[in-house]
Amino acid sequence: VPAVQVRGLHVRLGGAVILAGVDLTVAPGEWVTVIGPNGAGKSTLLRAVGGLLPAPGAVSLFGTPSGALRRRERARVVATVAQSPVVPAGMSVFDYVLLGRTPYIAPLGRESAADLAVVHDVLDRLDLTGFHGRELATLSGGERQRVFLARALAQGATLLLLDEPTSALDIGHQQEVLELVDQLRRTHGLTVLATMHDLSVAGEYADRMVLLADGRVVAAGPPDQVLTEELLSRHYRARVRVVPGDH
Ligand code: ADP
Ligand code: MG
Ligand code: MG
């Protein structure tokens, strides 16, 4: 059973066709990265997969039609890290990661010792033990990205949706964050569906890539078959440079 199955996904927003019949399959444990120029529909696709946009009948997660999942069930299956997550003013790293437990905590504000233990464990795994009390807004881009991942992990989901997780980072930190995601994928058996605009390191971390342009899949396959000069120069307006030798 695929972790993600998208069949003929059409999305219209504000009267415009944003996705025009997208098909996508992600196997359990696989890492698939969706690339494409600005405005191609990458974020929209991720939002539809994550249930943040209605996609009647087009999306199944681990064999269950997405529309049939209730909120709590969905939270056990899928965790989304948005392109620019809202960072609540004044919130500490610990409290932010604890928000990942929200679907499990009832009533809110009455978290159990088990929930707190999950947060401690996740912060430890992501090398954030010294950061519990730090205000989120004071962290560097790379540290903040680790905290976003920590919150997603605290949720305990098996499918990680990452919308441009490296867009705000320099190349060293890009590699660090992607390395961490890859490590978590292997140790936790996670499935990863990511989007990336910057292609400099994207190919090193994906099992497969999907090139989206104008709301359609124009290429899909192993990174070296998608990151070709021909495809990229045809679909990216600006010139993109791919680090040579890695693909
Ligand atoms: P990408 O992530 O590939 O840059 P997006 O999925 O964010 O692309 O957007 C794809 C297109 O859909 C863009 O042209 C964008 O302006 C448009 N779009 C996104 N959200 C909305 C919305 N809520 N209403 C109208 N148009 C939207
Ligand atoms: Mg964009
Ligand atoms: Mg986007």
UniProtKB/TrEMBL annotation:
Which CDD domains would you find in this protein's record?
ABC_Iron-Siderophores_B12_Hemin
Presence of the UniProt keyword Transport in the record = yes
Q: Which species does the entry assign this protein to?
A: Micromonospora wenchangensis
The name this protein goes by in its record:
ABC transporter
InterPro entries with a match to the protein in the record: AAA+_ATPase, ABC_transporter-like_ATP-bd, ABC_transporter-like_CS, P-loop_NTPase
Q: Does the keyword Transport apply?
A: yes
Which PROSITE patterns does this one have? Answer: ABC_TRANSPORTER_1 (PS00211), ABC_TRANSPORTER_2 (PS50893)
* UniProt-recorded Gene Ontology molecular function terms: ATP binding; ATP hydrolysis activity
Taxonomy of the source species: Bacteria, Bacillati, Actinomycetota, Actinomycetes, Micromonosporales
Q: Which SMART domains match?
A: AAA
Keywords from the named record: ATP-binding, Nucleotide-binding, Translocase, Transport
Residues covered by the ABC transporter domain: 4-239
